[in-house]
Write a sequence for this structure.
């Protein structure tokens, strides 16, 4: 495979270098003939493009003879397409007309990286989202982008899913939707299970790897991902889609929009329903979601509102498959296991996670002048839900239930009286629910000023989180009249997060751009009450972080560009980190990342290549130990010094207009320096004693040294496309000891897709078929575990998350 890829690259580059070359130049103006600076001019089905200068001029060099379709786009203007035949160098003029809607919120643009911003970035288009979406969650939509590893608890890519970028887990990846923080304030992660079919509402995605540029919400501690939801469409539209797939998967989607009404209004809506039985036993998903958007615009003002509603009921499968069952039944799920009165094994049928989460936002944008833009967004996210579990022979002491005393029992047998002294009941089967009721609200604002070759952006955000965690017992077998409204634990928390940042981009010349960015964050967090094990949680913390970033971008010529950047990021511990630390002798502290990035980009007519080198040095990095607590959250620990170093190689080729090839390869080294293992040793008499081992330099958990993707798409005509994609993930440890007993083997999977589009009267019919894991590969994407010692002999335990074999999905859509 590697030799084929290199050979294809060589053929394409050689053909590009030695064919006769011409230049296409020109001017881009508005309807009145005024030049438009910064307009994008590109050639479709190629990697050639340029931006106009202050005089509206552009220049596309080293083009071969042939027929071309030119696309010209500019914010606030309708995209212009122009066909031409190039047989010699020529000059053209492109005239653009302003759209009705011309203002994009600065809250959104303030956190996005531009094409020349010196960061490692990947932009995913609406077309690419639709090709990858089907029924799976966001991590699998993004799986083909560089350095990403996607995971799924139930093996199907639906329900509880996650992703890691350069080995960085979800709680360190900053996620925003239209510039609004999406990460949960306490866990700092994102639960895609609460946002079913969210990809259907997404218009574009930008991924920044490394620290990236300053953003709102949780710390960008290795990557950030920004989603833009579907914007205004000029004409009325509607679509109906239905997808059916393996494991009882069924999705329905309805969307519609009014088009622009009275040159001032637009309303759009989407409704989705997603059901699946899951591949792992009892890991079903019943998910519903809705998205309503509305916009009013006039002159240089715009007001936009978005409502995202989500409801999920999901069978719990976050415990994984124990190691001793992996060779017996890869779909095994021990969650809900209990034994009835006859000693028979049973599974509780309502072992579920249930949650309702709603997102609301209202944004105002003003374009005061050509150079000055302002926007302000208010937002609120409400959440309420619980997960329910059956606990077999549970101790009353763990739930605050008083021991039940029974009186003496008198029994007469064959005329003889027997007296059984009083006894107690201290254990019983029971059902427990753990609840969370919370609200997250605040504002984000942005101000953008552009003058000559300088752009200055000011951004700020202030967010407040308030939540209550509590538990209830709906049923206790041996106490029929138990008060189910009684809370067996309850605690509250509040988190206030203030962020302000300034970004400056200045063009020294047509070739050199300098970038500067500094962010200040103030976080105040407090907890009160008792935890589920009755540990007091009265704690209060304050963090102040300053995160500077600098960089440069240099265009050697139209085809070759380089960049360099250095950034600092700080991140506070999560609620779980602080709780776990309070119950142990280990201290927990914030972590710091120093990120150095170097990049090179080559752009030819039919070939593009990017090489990114990164050196991410950590102080007090919180690393995954491989162990989970009782709600499936990972247990973390600080390590003094660690690093992630690697190279990302990204290529794209269009050898013909019918073929598109994209591939990426990440080679990395992820190490902890002077790692100390803390474990427990059991003596001959089963007494516990601490065991401390100095392991030296070890691998960071969940950080494969090799991650690769490959995709080739064929477009034989406008009505059909089909393609293959592959994903390779190298071996990875799931704790930090570099012990092969706790190591996931490498895996490679292949997928196939085909789609057909045809017009039917005034509608379009789209049919898409996906075959996932084409070769029916047995692989495991995630695991957790740990070790202990018996008389100084190491013992290991582990739980795994195997993934489904070959599976299918067929989607049919009608659009009007």
């Amino acid at each position: 495979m590697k030799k084929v890829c290199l050979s294809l690259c060589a053929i394409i580059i050689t053909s590009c270098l030695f064919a006769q070359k011409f230049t296409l130049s020109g001017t881009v103006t508005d309807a009145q003939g005024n030049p438009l600076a910064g307009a994008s001019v590109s050639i479709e089905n190629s990697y050639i493009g340029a931006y106009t200068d202050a005089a509206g001029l552009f220049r596309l060099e080293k083009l071969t003879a042939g027929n071309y379709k030119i696309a010209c786009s500019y914010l606030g203007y309708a995209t212009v397409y122009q066909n031409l035949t190039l047989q010699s160098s020529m000059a053209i003029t492109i005239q653009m007309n302003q759209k009705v809607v011309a203002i994009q919120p600065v809250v959104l643009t303030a956190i996005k990286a531009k094409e020349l911003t010196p960061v490692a970035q990947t932009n995913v288009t609406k077309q690419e989202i639709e090709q990858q979406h089907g029924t799976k969650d966001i991590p699998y939509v993004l799986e083909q982008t560089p350095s990403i590893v996607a995971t799924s608890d139930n093996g199907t890519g639906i329900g509880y899913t996650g992703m890691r970028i350069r080995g960085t887990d979800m709680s360190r990846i900053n996620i925003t939707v239209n510039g609004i923080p999406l990460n949960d304030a306490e866990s700092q992660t994102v639960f895609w299970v609460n946002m079913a079919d969210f990809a259907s509402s997404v218009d574009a995605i930008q991924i920044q790897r490394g620290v990236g540029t300053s953003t709102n919400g949780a710390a960008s501690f290795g990557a950030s991902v920004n989603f833009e939801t579907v914007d205004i469409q000029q004409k009325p539209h509607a679509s109906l889609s239905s997808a059916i797939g393996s494991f009882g998967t069924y999705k329905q989607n309805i969307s519609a929009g009014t088009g622009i009404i009275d040159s001032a209004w637009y309303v759009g809506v989407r409704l989705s329903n997603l059901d699946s039985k899951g591949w792992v036993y009892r890991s079903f998903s019943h998910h519903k979601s809705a998205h309503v958007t509305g916009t009013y615009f006039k002159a240089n003002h715009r007001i936009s509102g978005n409502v995202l509603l989500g409801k999920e009921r999901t069978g719990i499968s976050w415990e994984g498959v124990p190691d001793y069952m992996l060779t017996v039944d890869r779909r095994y799920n021990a969650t809900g296991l209990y034994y009835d009165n006859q000693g028979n094994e049973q599974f509780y049928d309502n072992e579920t996670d249930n949650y309702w989460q709603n997102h609301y936002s209202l944004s105002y944008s003003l374009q005061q002048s050509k150079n000055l833009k302002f926007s302000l967004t208010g937002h609120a996210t409400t959440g309420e839900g619980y997960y329910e579990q059956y606990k077999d022979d549970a101790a009353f002491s763990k739930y605050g239930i008083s021991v039940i005393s029974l009186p003496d029992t008198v029994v007469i047998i064959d005329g003889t009286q027997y007296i059984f002294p009083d006894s107690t009941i201290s254990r019983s089967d029971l059902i427990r629910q753990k609840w969370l009721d919370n609200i997250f609200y605040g504002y984000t604002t942005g101000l953008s000023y552009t003058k000559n070759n300088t752009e200055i952006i000011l951004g700020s955000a202030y967010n407040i989180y308030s939540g209550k965690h509590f538990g209830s017992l709906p049923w206790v077998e041996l106490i029929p009249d138990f008060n189910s409204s009684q809370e067996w634990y309850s605690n509250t928390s509040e988190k206030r997060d203030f962020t302000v940042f300034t970004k400056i981009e200045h063009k020294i010349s047509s070739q050199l751009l300098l970038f500067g960015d500094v962010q200040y964050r103030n976080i105040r967090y407090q907890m009160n009450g008792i935890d589920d094990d009755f540990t007091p949680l009265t704690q209060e913390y304050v963090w102040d972080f300053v995160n500077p970033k600098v960089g440069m971008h240099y265009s050697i010529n139209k085809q070759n560009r380089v960049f360099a950047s250095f950034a600092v990021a700080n991140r506070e511990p999560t609620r779980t980190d602080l709780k776990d630390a309070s119950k142990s002798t280990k201290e927990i502290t914030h972590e710091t990342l120093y990120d150095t990035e170097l990049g090179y980009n080559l752009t030819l007519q039919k070939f593009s290549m990017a090489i990114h080198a990164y050196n991410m040095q950590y102080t007090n990095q919180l690393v995954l130990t491989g162990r989970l607590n009782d709600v499936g959250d990972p247990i973390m620990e600080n390590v003094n010094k660690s690093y992630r170093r690697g190279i990302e190689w990204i290529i794209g080729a269009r050898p013909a207009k019918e073929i598109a090839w994209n591939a990426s390869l990440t080679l990395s080294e992820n190490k902890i320096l002077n790692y100390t293992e803390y474990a427990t040793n059991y003596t001959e008499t089963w007494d516990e004693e601490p065991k401390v081992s100095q392991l030296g330099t070890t691998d960071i958990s969940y950080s494969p040294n090799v991650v690769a993707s490959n995709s080739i798409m064929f477009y034989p005509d406008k009505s059909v496309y089909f393609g293959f994609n592959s994903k390779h993930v190298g071996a990875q440890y799931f704790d930090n000891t570099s012990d092969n007993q706790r190591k996931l083997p490498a895996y490679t999977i292949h997928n196939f897709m085909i789609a057909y589009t045809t017009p039917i009267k005034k509608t379009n019919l789209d049919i898409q078929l996906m075959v996932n894991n084409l070769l029916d590969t047995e692989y495991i994407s995630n695991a957790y575990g740990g070790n202990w010692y018996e008389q100084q002999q190491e013992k290991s335990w582990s739980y795994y998350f195997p993934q489904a074999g070959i599976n299918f999905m067929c989607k049919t859509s009608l659009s009007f």
